[in-house]
Amino acid sequence: MNVRTPPPAPAPESEAELRRRIEKLERINAALMAHVERSTDQQGGSYALFQTAITLEGRVRSRTEELTGLMHRLERSNAALVAAKEEAENANRSKTRFLAAASHDLLQPLNAARLSLSALADLPLCHDATVVAGQVERGLQTIEDLIKTLLDISKLDAGIVRPQLRPLSLPDLLAGLAASFKPFAERKGLRLVVRCPDVTVETDGVLLQRILQNLVSNAVRYTASGGVLILARTRGDRIRVDVIDTGCGIAAEERDLVFDEFYRGGTRRAVQGGESGEPGLGLGLSIVRRMAAALGHPLALASRPGHGTRVSLTLPPSAAPPEPEIRAAPVATRLSGARILIVENDASTADALKRLLQNWDARVAAFRDLAGVRSAIEGGATAPDILILEYHLDDGACGLEVAHYLRALRSTPLPVILTTADYSPEIEAEAEACGVELVRKPIKPAQLRSLLTYMLA
User: InterPro entries, per this entry (predicted)?
Assistant: First the structure.
């Protein structure tokens, strides 16, 4: 005997759905009753009333079925949208993690190359060798800038960057910006002028500086004659900062495209700007747009081909005074005889760093991990004056373990420099908690020497 399996019961409706359906039916019922009453008044007969009721019943059933179908389709559409949104967010997070890991691996050999090149530059070289070394240095700097910018874009798109809004003195920021770009402008025969009232704005100083650096850099790059004006003015209850140049300008069809990745406006603009046909990477304005959006600072562009360009950024004022900036006094100390201990698992980086420090007359010992350091100390090695430690070591080990070990063996403070090609904020927080100085790779030799000099004092 065949036993038929009963069909599965439909999924129970939620309380909210049932309430909505009841409310709709109540409204329909009220409308039907009103219609019936009007029909009764007009026709005045029971048969007409019966016909009217049947007609209206069919309309109600049809309308109810139509509404139910629409509700089900809407529910399925919403579920599909939620799933697509989650998939896109997961893909974006995966892209950010991949770029962070790839950047770490790419910056490691780049760091070794920069250190080796700096050690080479300290040696006596002929003129041609010096020129070639300079060209290699510029090429490595371009690669470094590209990797870091791509990582910045990925972080901004993923929403990882969280602006730290604080009161900031706008005249101080613009004055420092002008001082850093003035030599480049003068080299091209350009005037670089800053006009700014004494105002304080509410912003993230690091992000705002990056934005304005890119804008001023573009203005100088694409201006062959005349100058660049950085102008801050009060506009209503806001402060507007304009970067105005007398360069070649931007055609109307290009104004929206200049904020896209890798769009450089063609070689023509670079030649007109006096850059010998070598435009930039095409990422500066893309970073500007994303950072301005993250800060909530409106960005606008106006330009006339052949006359120049104005890029405007609107900032909110701050009623609070700017936070004071603490500057460390310069220390005139040499590195001669300083005992420096390096822990670095990348052999090429360790060798280049050791050679560079020895060129500075320091006494250097290099190890790959904590086991090597412990063996040397237990064998009677001289205690170091300062440590330079890589954060990520082999087999998941951390360079800070070396700092903890050596600090426990002495009663006096032991200065530590932590190096890494990982730009995650967690490492920065950990370094701050341990009281060590964090240096991002690729290491800039001049920065490292200045930091060593200061810490050894």
Answer: CheY-like_superfamily, HATPase_C_sf, HATPase_dom, His_kinase_dom, HisK_dim/P_dom, HisK_dim/P_sf, Sensor_HK_Regulatory, Sig_transdc_His_kin-like_C
